UniProtKB/TrEMBL annotation:
This is TetR family transcriptional regulator. The keyword Transcription regulation applies. The lineage of its organism: Bacteria, Pseudomonadati, Pseudomonadota, Gammaproteobacteria, Oceanospirillales. Residues 10-70 form the HTH tetR-type domain. Residues 33-52 bind DNA. The keyword Hydrolase does not apply. It comes from Alcanivorax nanhaiticus. GO terms for molecular function: DNA-binding transcription factor activity; transcription cis-regulatory region binding. InterPro entries: Homeodomain-like_sf, HTH-type_TetR-like_transc_reg, HTH_TetR, MT1864/Rv1816-like_C, Tet_transcr_reg_TetR-rel_C_sf.
Length: 199
């Protein structure tokens, strides 16, 4: 690792975010602290507070990386039908829950300290995911209102998320040991047929 004075602010930010991701992957979110992040990269906690506002800021920045990776993988192919895009998005989502469980969970389990508001820049990151789902839903039923599309996208993705949670925690046995992909296929087929007015 380079000497401390050789790291720019941006480089230090990158090192710290990767340290958060590594520490959470190794030990879980509950054991994360600014001090442990600083120790991992050879800095003092005080130095990190010159780059990040607090632990919440560090976690949100790391979560933003996870969301960007998820969005990139979910939208890798856009030359397919809306149904195929939704199918790919759902499979990628569940796969990340399986393969990067700790980081995936950090996006949903982290709560801001002292009831602080989630910053607008981060809300825009999460909105970008839903906008992809909404675009596909709109293409399948063009007569639906914006409010109906908004609701349907979140209803569908809430169901996908439920399957992902069961997969991540290896709790699919409580659903009768059904394959997660079969569950996704059934969910997407029946919900989207209903949404598109098909039988």
């Amino acid at each position: 690792m380079a000497r401390r004075n050789q790291h720019s602010r941006e480089e230090l930010q990158t090192l710290a975010i990767q340290a958060v991701r590594d520490l959470v992957s190794e030990n879980g979110l509950e054991k994360l602290s600014v001090r442990k992040v600083a120790e991992r990269i050879g800095y003092t906690a005080g130095m990190l507070y010159h780059v990040f506002a607090n632990l919440d800021d560090l976690i949100l920045q790391a979560n933003a990386d996870t969301l960007e990776q998820l969005l990139s993988a979910m939208t890798e192919r856009e030359d397919v039908s809306p149904r195929q895009r939704l199918d790919r998005m759902a499979r990628v989502y569940v796969s990340m829950a399986r393969d990067q469980t700790a980081l995936w969970k950090m996006v949903f389990l982290h709560q801001m300290q002292n009831q602080a508001q989630v910053p607008e820049w981060y809300l825009q990151k999460t909105a970008a995911l839903f906008s992809q789902v909404e675009a596909c839903m709109a293409s399948l039923a063009e007569r639906q209102t914006a409010e109906q599309i908004h609701l349907a996208a979140r209803t569908l993705w809430g169901s996908v998320h439920g399957i992902a949670v069961l997969a991540a925690d290896d709790k699919l046995v409580v659903a009768g040991d059904v394959d997660e992909q079969a569950m996704l296929d059934s969910l997407l087929q029946h919900y989207l047929n209903s949404w598109a007015g098909e039988k």
